[in-house]
Write a structure and sequence with these properties.
about 230 residues; mainly alpha; Ribonuclease iii, N-terminal Endonuclease Domain, Chain A; Double Stranded RNA Binding Domain; three-stranded antiparallel beta sheet; 3 strands; globular
């Protein structure tokens, strides 16, 4: 077992049984082109870890908030396990230095890529499940992820950006945000939309996405950031 993985195990109070399995959780697909040490990337483990994360988080929220209905629980879960949250958690656990990726991927900022970090955390969770069992996964999440639910509720980040922007716009400007289509491109199976938020006749930020809804959500996010700075 590598010294970095040993340090991770010590910091988490874990005793891995299958170190090669756990190390595989940190293998980005780009690494396979430069090394024969691993036969597959961490993508299968990521798939498993995603399921473990959803079950453990759903169970935690179900038990913690007995008065919340399904829709509210779903929104809180989405906010708690979003890419940014998992990437931040992976960084705090020193995952970037453990990830095995190609030199080109690393040079391109791969170790700071939020998507890669979030995927790696899910892959680690999948490996942990196979190596030490479900209870170890729950213990890890209870210590490092679930406490963040208080901030999610305080900041109301469980609400989607469009809903939050509507609340802010109606409170500040007494107006409802509108979204206009700036551009639409790409074939039917791979569309790309650009939308712009407009409030009370004033144009705000643009957003992009593979659907109009996703582009509107992205525009709302950037508009909220813009309004926060002003």
């Amino acid at each position: 077992m590598s010294s970095d993985l040993t340090a991770l195990a010590d910091s988490l109070g874990l005793a891995f049984k299958n170190s090669h399995l756990v190390e595989n959780a940190f293998v980005h697909r780009s690494y396979l082109n430069e090394s024969k040490e691993f036969s597959e990337s961490n993508e299968r483990l990521e798939y498993l870890g995603d399921a473990v994360l959803e079950l453990a988080t759903s169970d935690f929220l179900y038990r913690t908030f007995p008065d919340y209905q399904e829709g509210m629980l779903t929104n809180i879960r989405a906010a708690l396990v979003r890419t940014e949250s998992l990437a931040e958690l992976a960084s705090s656990l020193k995952f970037p230095s453990l990830i095995r990726m190609s030199k080109g991927e690393a040079a391109g900022g791969g170790r700071e890529n939020q998507s890669i970090l979030a995927d790696t955390f899910e892959a680690f969770l999948g490996a942990l499940y196979l190596d030490l069992g479900y209870d170890s996964c729950v213990e890890l999440l209870t210590t490092h992820l679930f406490p963040h639910v208080e901030m999610v509720l305080k900041e109301q980040s469980y609400k989607d950006n469009k809903s939050l922007l509507q609340e802010v716009a109606q409170s500040r400007l007494k107006a409802t945000p509108q979204y206009i289509l700036i551009s639409e491109s790409g074939p039917d199976h791979d569309k790309h939309f650009v939308m712009k938020a407009v409030i009370a006749g004033t144009e705000y930020a643009e957003g992009e996405g593979k659907s109009k809804q996703a582009a509107q959500e992205d525009a709302a996010k950037h508009t909220l950031e813009q309004m926060t700075r002003t």
